[in-house]
Amino acid sequence: MTYQVLARKWRPRNFREMAGQGHVLKTLINSLDNDRLHHAYLFTGTRGVGKTTIARILARCLNCEKGVTSEPCGECSACTEIDQGRFIDLIEVDAASRTKVEDTRELLDNVQYSPTRGRFKVYLIDEVHMLSGHSFNALLKTLEEPPPHVKFLLATTDPQKLPITVLSRCLQFNLKNISPERLVEHIKHILDEEKVPYEEPALWQLGRAAQGSVRDCLTLLDQAIGYCEGEITDTAVRAFLGTIDQSVIHELVDTLIANDAAAMLKIIDAAADHAPDFSSVLADLLSYLHRVAIAQVLPDGIDNSQGDRQRVLDHAGTIAAETLQLYYQIALKSREDLPFAIDARAGLEMALLRMLAFAPAGVPIVPQAHLSADEVAPDMQDPEDKVKKKPPVNEAITGHSRLISSRADVPLPKPAKTPAAKDEAQSAAIQTSAVRANSSTAAEVKTLAENAPQEKDSAQPLAEKGDVLSKDRLSLQTLSSDQWISLFFQLGLDGITRSITANCLLGEVKGRHITLILDESQTSVFNEEQQRRIKSAFDKYFQEELQLEIKTGKIDAETPSAWRERMEQERLQAAIIEFENDEMVKEILERFSGVIQPDTIEPTSPKQY
Ligand SMILES: [Zn+2]
Predict the structure, then answer these.
(1) Alpha-carbon distance 543 to 546, whole Å?
(2) Which CATH number do you get for residue 525?
(3) d(Cα 323, Cα 404) in Å, to the nearest integer?
(4) How far does residue 71's CA lie from ligand 1's centre (Å)?
(5) CA of 179 to the centre of ligand 1 (A)
(6) What pTM was computed for the model?
(7) How many CB atoms lie within 10 A of CB 312?
(8) Ligand 1 centroid vs 300 CA: distance in angstroms?
(9) Ligand 1 centroid vs 139 CA: distance in angstroms?
(10) Distance between CA atoms of 544 and 547, rounded to whole angstroms?
(11) What is the pLDDT of residue 212?
């Protein structure tokens, strides 16, 4: 018997067998069972989360010979042929390889003919964002008036690249990344069925390495089975993934606390015997420091999925909050700088040595008492008050910590209060700002400075147009969600921060607490650094220290990104009309029997944003 890869062998054949995506499946099952079918479905999400799998199952649901159902029989010829990829009325297209308009026309030419075998002709277009502008127009015409026997199932990793006109004609489903817990559960089931023995921690390694993708997880599992020859063990999986035992991270943190550089280098040397990927060691360290920081404010927030809850809590009680923030920031910057290090191991060693060099002497060890619930609780109840309550000597440190953590909803533990600790804290503040000056601050100031004129320029034409946009300075007291697009263009953001924010909506504004809602499909590029930059732009604009919360959610209004897209479309349409009505163009067309190719027209009117 030939070996069949797991991803193929265990590809779900009905909705029940899917791992995750319950929110999407529920809606699809309901619409199938209640006979409320749409003619075009769009599935979005990162790679390997199940977009085409769901689409293929839906094709079976629509064409099963037993009738339209959310539970296709899996036995009739329609079900089996779809499964084997040879059902004549399921037309699968990879848009990445067929981007030209001729391809799309050829594809859509046959749309009006009835299905040969099935009930519906199903067009499954994967990576649909890769189609050219012409192809989209051809597709759009069919989407506007689809014959009743046709269903479109579109899938994309990048819905932002789809024209709004196409988006608006599809029922859209955002597929989420699958949690490590769900992935572990899934592969555990498969291994039990396949009768392959395993150690559970090994599965957690695989579940985390797959980064939310079922397909990647099964591919890794295939490799692990090949590598391990028999039982899938934690050690073997670590070796093949290049990760290290979590206990190495614990030991490294111990040496930081003990201020013992020699022992630290010895641990790295010993770890090198297993040829780990040192950049992932640095990532593991970051993730560990994050858990320790969370444990300091919310001990119950730490689960034991990695079997080290007690170690995390011990470290949380031993390292001062501000020192921990310093370690974290150094690890974060070092990770960013890693490509420039001679090699990853040197990068890791320098990061750890830097933590020792900058750690305020004597401060790391603090009594656990300062983490008691009594002290933490008031801050949690009233986060707005915490700045006022701080003694002035600690302002610099808390300011810095806030800058790094930038999570307004996580209160900061108070620094130690003994007089000796005060002095040390002060020296920590000085050292801390030295680190900042070396890293992000200079770049930040530069970025802000560069943005100032751009902000003015972009706001100028908006006001002239008299659209929803205004260049008037907005006030926090009267700020409302319908002013969001105007505010966005005045914030002076750039780069990836700008594009993330462009996919947000303004949620609640309560005093100094502002909530942004980030499109679920945009979360992959969002991180703490981005949160910090966005907050800093808001602070700068309103000239106040704000509490900015960014949560993911459903987008139910026009984001700045969608607005810009619409403006761009309208601008192009206007140019096309102007061109077509031009007397000289008309004459040329007539005399030479010419044809206008609309997508070669470029608007020359100034952009409205
Ligand atoms: Zn069937």
Answers:
(1) 9
(2) 3.30.300.150
(3) 12
(4) 9
(5) 31
(6) 0.52
(7) 23
(8) 49
(9) 29
(10) 10
(11) 87
Boundary residue ending a domain (131, 149, 174): 174
Q: How far is the CA of 5 from the centre of ligand 1 (A)?
A: 25
Q: pLDDT of 456-491, one tens digit each?
A: 344 445 434 445 577 788 888 888 888 898 899 888
User: How far is ligand 1, taken at its centre, from the CA of residue 254, in Å?
Assistant: 60
Do residues 299 and 188 share a domain? no
pLDDT score of 386? 37
- 77 Cα–ligand 1 center, Å: 7
Question: How many whole angstroms from 17 Cα to the centroid of ligand 1?
Answer: 16
Q: Residue 29's closest CA among 65, 85, 68?
A: 68
- Report every protein residue that has its C-beta within 5 angstroms of ion ligand 1: 64, 72-73, 76, 79
Compute, in angstroms, the gap from residue 149 CA to the centroid of ligand 1. Answer: 18
307 and 276 together in one domain: yes
Query: pLDDT for 111-169, tens place per residue?
Result: 888 898 889 999 999 999 988 888 888 888 888 888 999 999 999 999 998 988 899 99
Please enumerate in sequence order all residues whose Cβ is within 8 A of that of 337, keeping only pairs 6 or more positions apart, or say none: 347
Instruction: State the pLDDT at residue 402.
Output: 32
Find the CATH number of the domain harbouring 224.
1.10.8.60
pLDDT tens for each residue of 267-314: 999 888 877 888 888 988 998 999 999 999 998 888 766 668 889 999
* 135 neighbors 41 (Cβ within 8 angstroms): no
Q: Which domain holds residue 89?
A: 6-174
